[in-house]
């Protein structure tokens, strides 16, 4: 996999992060989880999470992936995540060796 061209472009990442960031509070509310618990789950401080959710801090791609994993794994938010059309299927397929 080293040296292979990634199918996920910088523009895709930027757009997906922006969409997720705009919908974070709604997703978190639907998942019925506090900022503190979600931040702990993905391995960041509550202050960092708050900054991301309020748009005061930029979201890194690794945090995006961690949040996608959480919301995709939660039956309360899985459908909403699909509706946002930001689930990186190309990444999943690449990891699974399907590409």
Description:
This protein has 99 residues and is mainly α. Helices cover 66% and strands 0% of the residues. It is built from 6 helices and no strands. Helix 4 (61-73) crosses helix 5 (78-84).
Give a brief rundown of this model.
The protein contains 6 helices and no strands.
List keywords for this structure.
99 residues, mainly alpha, 6 helices
- The helix-strand sequence is HHHHHH
Average pLDDT works out at: 87
Structural class: mainly alpha
The main sheet comes to: none
Helix content: 55-70%
Please provide the count of β strands. 0
User: How many helices?
Assistant: 6
Instruction: Give the CA-based shape.
Output: globular
Low-confidence stretches: none
Alpha-carbon distance between the two ends: 11 Å
Beta-strand share of residues: under 5%
Please give the structural blueprint.
Blueprint (H helix, E strand, L loop, with lengths): L9 H22 L3 H8 L3 H8 L7 H13 L4 H7 L4 H7 L4
Helix pairs in contact: 2-3, 4-5
């Amino acid at each position: 996999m080293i040296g292979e061209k990634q199918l996920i472009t910088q523009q895709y990442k930027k757009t997906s992060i922006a969409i997720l960031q705009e919908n974070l509070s709604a997703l978190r509310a639907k998942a019925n989880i506090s900022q503190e618990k979600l931040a702990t789950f993905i391995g960041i401080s509550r202050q960092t999470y708050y900054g991301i959710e309020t748009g005061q801090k930029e979201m890194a791609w690794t945090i995006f992936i961690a949040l996608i994993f959480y919301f995709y794994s939660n039956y309360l938010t899985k459908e909403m995540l699909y509706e946002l059309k930001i689930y990186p299927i190309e990444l999943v397929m690449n990891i699974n060796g399907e590409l």
